[in-house]
Specification:
There is one protein chain. This protein has about 150 residues and is mainly beta. It has a domain at about 30-120: Immunoglobulins (Immunoglobulin-like). Helices cover about 10% and strands about 35% of the residues. The chain is built from one helix and ten strands; from the N terminus they run αββββββββββ. It has one helix at about 1-15, and strands at about 30-35, 40-45, 50-55, 60-70, 75, 85, 90-95, 100-110, 115, 120. The strands form two sheets. Strands 2, 4, 5, 8, 9 and 10 form a six-stranded mixed sheet that branches. A hairpin with a 3-residue loop joins β6 (about 85) and β7 (about 90-95). It starts with a helix and ends in a 28-residue tail after the last strand.
Amino acid sequence: MLTRLVPLLAVLVLGACAPAAERPSLRPVVFTATRGIDGPSAAAPGQEVVIQGRYLGGPSTGSVIFRADERGEGGTRAQAKDIVSWGADNIVVRVPEDTAAGGGFIVVEVQGVKSFGMPFSITEPAQAKGRAPAQPVQAPKVGARPHKPL
């Protein structure tokens, strides 16, 4: 009996130590999302956005979602043509042309695991050459609750 149990225990122990190839062990983390290095947290379709964080994966394993809700659902997913560069700690991506103006969150998804959303607004593109773009729509505030009187 013991001779049959030892190989089974060995398989279970070794299997528990093996890395999980299907899912990353760490959630992607987004620190900042701005237009340019120190720009505002708003951009129009076609403009470049710099996302800085950790565990961001790569273009073959990850994706960027614009105007997602607080759970990372919905929004517009950037396509391969929108990716300018992608590293483990830094992504440069253009806002997809079909992204609607308004507030929401930027979410980075790596192998099915989503980062927490970073508030970010999509502005209307400038209507005519030489005209300044419209002011950004305010992104929703995380955890904001109305004040209750005592």
